[in-house]
């Protein structure tokens, strides 16, 4: 449950307390206005009559402090005491009436969010203090603060923009409450748009091979929900935080769980956290989060929710549109065009599913791009594009509007002869060629025929009895969070 402390009395403070008392969570007020104290107590608000700068009058622990007096100098002093007493709390400071430039600057150094008189005061403070999802935010902050060491925020392997942005966003939130955090991933960032996103915005990501998890006190998963499933972590890894928008196939175990399949992107959930905690993401992170939402919702037309639109609108003001345009329009490599041409030429259609073998490849990421493009074919809802290099067959599958969980379907089809998995609408697989990989060039056509029989044959056969995508996700109530 979110705990708020209001320091001082002003028109802003009056309106804030009136609005905040109607919301979930605990509310405390410290003010030396005797008349207001009496009114607050009559309304069952926990109020203490003391100077807002008197730290001894503060409650033992709070999540958010709102400095809401009228006098700028006194507000600065109250913000300083609050910061000293609650170093991990969010401090939201009202500058007061007619503040000087120096006072505005000083409040900016003390507070996480500054409310200036030129803004719509009460509404801004209330929104910064947290809307109706206060309890969720309080639990997340509690979990983060309980960590005695740094947090590893892990995206799924071969992360897409949503996973990349979400990992960076959650790491930023952890750092805001005094917890060191690193955003990391397994596999490769190979897709041209994904590489452009990371390179143009200079995003601070670490590969899991570069860190030792033993050095981290906590692990968080973003854009997926189970260790060892679609990531490079051991399955027995203890997880502290899960933030995901994909419906999981099995139990999700973590201290804090926020799994919401009704939302189009995990980046939307992270953007909500920023809004509710009163933190402004920097320009690079805002750009990454907006791109993550746009990619996962296909520019707000696929599996999109009101929350996605709201988050996108807020991020658009903060994002770098010029950089976003460059990320969305990377140069297309000759390998990508060749793979797409082969995928179109060699497509095999059964019902609403398409499978296509593109033969030998030089860049396995081209398979994902071809699988996405084939979804544009009329009446096609599932695609599988596969090719081989370095003795391994790589496959990429996509689904849109299909009554099939393509991740489970690919795992069922190819998991016994290789490794496979993913989400309901996006999946991949790797199958070793074994002795078939040693065939000479004259036998390449035969090799291709054999691969098609194994990969496409198993895939189409599995689709006949493939599992449907899960529609319900476990909540923290369904799986105890201790």
Compute the average pLDDT: 84
Low-confidence stretches: 118-126, 128-132, 471-482
Oligomeric status: single chain
The tally of helices reads 16
Radius of gyration: 26 Å
The main sheet comes to: 6 strands, parallel
Structural class: alpha/beta
Q: How would you describe the shape? A: elongated
- Terminal Cα span: 14 Å
Describe the strand arrangement of the main beta sheet, using strand numbers. Answer: 3-2-1-4-5-6
Indicate the proportion of strand residues.
15-25%
Number of strands: 18
Work out the helicity level. 25-40%
Summarize the structure.
With about 475 residues, the chain is an alpha/beta fold. It is about 40% helix and about 20% strand.
List keywords for this structure.
482 residues, alpha/beta
Characterization of the model:
The chain is of the alpha/beta class and 482 residues long. Helix content is 39%, strand content 19%. It has 16 helices and 18 strands. The strands form three sheets. The chain has a six-stranded parallel sheet, sandwiched between helices. The protein has a six-stranded parallel sheet with strand order 9-8-7-10-11-12. Helix 7 runs antiparallel to helix 10 (283-296), helix 9 (266-277) runs antiparallel to helix 10 (283-296) and helix 15 packs across helix 16. It is elongated. It starts with a strand and ends in a 19-residue tail after the last helix. The model is unreliable at 118-126, 128-132 and 471-482 (pLDDT under 50).
């Amino acid at each position: 449950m979110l705990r708020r402390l209001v320091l001082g009395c002003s028109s802003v403070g009056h309106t804030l307390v009136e609005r905040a008392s109607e919301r979930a969570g605990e509310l405390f007020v410290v003010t030396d206005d005797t008349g207001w104290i009496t009114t607050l107590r009559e309304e069952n608000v926990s109020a203490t009559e003391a100077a807002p700068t008197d730290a001894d009058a503060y409650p033992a622990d709070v999540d958010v402090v709102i400095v809401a007096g009228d006098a700028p100098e006194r507000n600065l002093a109250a913000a300083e005491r609050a910061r000293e007493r609650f170093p991990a709390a969010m401090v939201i400071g009202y500058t007061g009436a007619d503040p000087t430039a120096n006072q505005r600057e000083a409040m900016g150094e003390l507070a996480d969010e500054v409310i200036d008189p030129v803004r719509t005061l009460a509404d801004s403070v209330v929104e910064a203090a947290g809307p109706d999802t206060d309890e969720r935010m309080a639990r997340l902050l509690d979990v983060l603060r309980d960590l005695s060491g740094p947090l590893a925020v892990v995206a799924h392997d071969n992360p897409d923009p949503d996973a990349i942005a979400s990992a960076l966003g959650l790491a930023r939130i952890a750092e805001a409450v005094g917890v060191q955090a690193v955003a990391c991933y397994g596999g490769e960032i190979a897709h041209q748009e994904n590489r452009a996103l990371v390179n143009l915005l200079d995003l601070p990501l670490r590969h899991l091979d570069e860190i030792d998890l033993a050095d981290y006190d906590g692990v968080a998963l973003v854009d997926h929900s189970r260790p060892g499933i679609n990531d490079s972590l051991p399955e027995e890894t203890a997880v502290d935080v899960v933030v995901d928008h994909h419906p999981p196939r099995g139990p999700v175990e973590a201290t804090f769980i926020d799994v919401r399949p009704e939302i189009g992107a995990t980046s939307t959930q992270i953007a909500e956290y920023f809004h509710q905690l009163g933190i402004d993401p920097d320009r690079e992170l805002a750009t990454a989060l907006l791109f993550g939402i746009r990619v996962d919702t296909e520019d707000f037309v696929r599996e999109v929710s009101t929350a996605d639109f709201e988050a996108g609108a807020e991020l658009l003001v903060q994002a770098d549109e010029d950089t976003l345009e460059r990320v969305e329009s990377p140069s297309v490599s000759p390998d990508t065009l060749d793979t797409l041409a082969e995928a179109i030429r060699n497509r095999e259609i059964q019902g609403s599913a398409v499978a296509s073998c593109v033969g030998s490849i030089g860049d396995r990421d081209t398979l994902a791009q071809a699988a996405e493009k084939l979804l544009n074919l009329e009446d096609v809802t599932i695609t599988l594009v596969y090719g081989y290099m370095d003795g391994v067959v790589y496959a990429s599958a996509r689904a849109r509007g299909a009554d099939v969980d393509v991740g489970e379907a690919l795992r069922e089809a190819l998991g016994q002869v290789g490794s496979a998995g993913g989400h309901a609408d996006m999946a991949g697989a790797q199958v070793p060629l074994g002795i078939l990989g040693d065939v000479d060039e004259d036998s390449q056509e035969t090799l291709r025929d054999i691969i098609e029989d194994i990969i496409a044959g198993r895939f189409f056969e599995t689709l006949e009895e493939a599992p449907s995508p899960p529609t319900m996700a476990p909540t923290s109530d369904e799986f105890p969070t201790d």
